[in-house]
Amino acid sequence: MNSNTDSEVLIIGAGPAGLMLANILGMYGRSVTVLEARDELIDYPRGVGLDDESLRTIQTVGLVDTVLPHTAPQHIMRLVNGSGKTIMINNPQTQEFGWDRKHAFIQPEVDKALYEGLAQYSSINVHFGHLVEDVIEDASGVTAIARITNADGTESEARFSAQYLVGCEGGKSPTRKRMGVSFEGDSPSTRWLVVDVDNDPLGTPNVFLGADPKRPYVSIGLPHAVRRWEFMLHDGEDESVVTSEAWVAEMLKDHVPDPHNLSYIRRRVFTHHGRVAGSFRKGRQLIAGDAAHLMPVWMGQGWNSGMRDATNLGWKLTSVLTGTADEEILDTFTSERKDHAKAMVDLSMTLGSVIKLTNPFAVAARDAASSVLNLFPSAKSYFSDMRFKPMPRYTSGVLADPTTQTSGSAAAKLTSKLIPVLTANNKVSPVGVQFPQPRVNSVHGENQRLDDVIGNWWTVLVWGNDPKDVLPAHSIKALEALGAKLVAIVPETQRAWATEHMDKDVLVLGDHTGAFKKWFNERPTQMIFLRPDRFVAGACLHQHGPATLAAILDSMGSATDHSRAKPQDSALAL
Questions:
Q1: In this protein, which residues make up the domain named FAD-binding (predicted)?
Q2: Exposure string for 540-561, b = 16+ CB within 10 A, e = fewer
Q3: Which of 21, 159, 220, 489 is most buried (most C-beta within 10 Å)?
């Protein structure tokens, strides 16, 4: 039996990246078909770390209340040497993006929440047991040919057509191979045994990375009373032997009082990979998640990087499908995501190298260096606050430079000679980075997270002013065509006045915590153009608003009429 089903986007793979991308597209009203070769979701633990960026995306698609019960916040990591002495503590305290920076989580339960969240969208269809064997692409779209094994053992073929296809099938991605792009990096030969047990026999709630030269290990406390251990394997240790209960019990004898009385979830050998695809797009086919990048487990960033991909790609696909942007915006998926994915791979590989040292001299040097560094508060906080983690900063893509209003790129520093810039406390550009998420008061409620109030599309944030008072009519018209929300942020003491006197179409937010005032006080950029993925596309003084908006729309190849909003419209010359 052959059938042909049409949708706007085909997603191959019902893993975390594919499920989140489907949720984002469903939220925007797009039609999506998800094809998964397996008969059901994977039900055993894999990823164990969920960060604040991912939880912010989960918040955006309205699933945070179903996900939080499967998480544990403030997941502290301790790197200890062979004597049990702490080399480094990683315990970031910030809630910059509205959530604790690090959480432990049970991936099967969170993935299940993402899958069940799709039920609210009539435009989303998920098909399990559909193995995509070929894809045909032409100028108008793509067609995936899937093989289905029926209940009676017979096989049938189904065809699914769409405008775009996103491969989220993991590291062996057939989509990536069809695209013919490189997958560069390393796959170290070091093998590790992962052991997951139920009814956690220890109960310690955090992560211990054991940099023991005799046999490096990991011990992780997870939600729902699950514990994970990982042990580095030596050459010659056979997989069939090391996965036996007897061998595992020998490994655990120094970790638990009774290693023979454990409830195992799984025992499995794996190797780490550090690879990034050369491009995340070719024509109408794209890749995301592990299909686009594989990274070692040390920073817990594999699952989170897939969330970042979905967050970046979902609104761009929507923009193309709705005619808000040209197809070329999809190329910015690679330019914005690839470098950060590689940075996370490199950091994870580096941390793994520190942990798995076995040479006595190298181990002694590492431990001595850590002892010295821990004497200096600034160095100690650098690791504790996780400031070594590279945060995404986009320098090319859907951006406008804050100094020159150049379209499609943004320098990391503010270099204008205007006095507000020269006197600023912080000359680091906020363009290309994720905007913070303080709590605010509004007519819709008090002490709410910013994203819950402003919605899930484009937003213009203006400190202290009515956006309609500081932007000309043609800019307001362009923003209306884009579907952007206009927001004024004022001290809480002024909120009642601003609500009464500002335009009725402007959302007034009260800064009752002072977080916004502190942020804007540091930077001479009182107008923020916020993308749907919460990254800053443009930041400027009010009179640079028209030119900045025009540059952002140009970077999208936007069909929105902004012909009058040109850089020369700016009243201030640099």
A1: 7-347
A2: bbbebbbbbbbbbbbbbbbebe
A3: 21
